[in-house]
Write a structure and sequence with these properties.
Layout: H1 3-30, H2 34-38, E1 41-49, E2 52-57, H3 58-71, E3 74-85, E4 88-97, E5 100-111, E6 114-123
Parallel strand pairs: 1-6
Antiparallel strand pairs: 1-2, 3-4, 4-5, 5-6
């Protein structure tokens, strides 16, 4: 197989894998599903909520988000902007909940063959 074609296919598969995980993260947030979202957490993840900000382990972060979503039932999530830079992707959107809207920032970074969540921000 031509060397350029081989590398082209590798790059294409890398890009497709990255976008799949970003789409699945968006879906998890739209559904307020912390368990589904936690599949994409890095070993530690920074979470910022209106009243607190901290770095958590995967299991701690899942509990924090379960609590957040149970207290803020999700009505919808609209993406305002998406971008990428040097193996990292970010999404800025508006999360609509029963308690109001949150400006939401999602930051993911490529680690090995996966895009992993590094940071989530939910700000009123």
């Amino acid at each position: 197989m031509n060397r350029f074609l081989k590398y082209g296919l590798i790059v294409l598969l890398f890009c497709l894998t990255s976008f799949v995980s970003v789409d699945e993260v968006e879906s998890a947030i739209k559904n307020g599903n912390a368990s589904q979202l936690s599949k994409y957490f890095d070993n530690t993840i920074e979470i910022t909520l209106t009243d607190k900000s901290n770095t958590y382990s995967k299991s701690q972060a899942e509990l924090v988000l379960k609590d957040f979503f149970s207290n803020n039932v999700v009505k919808g999530f609209e993406i305002v902007h998406k971008g990428n830079n040097a193996g990292a992707q970010f999404i800025i959107g508006t999360l609509e909940t029963k308690n109001g809207e949150y400006r939401t920032t999602i930051y993911m970074k490529q680690k090995g063959d996966k895009q992993l969540l590094q940071e989530l921000r939910f700000e009123k």
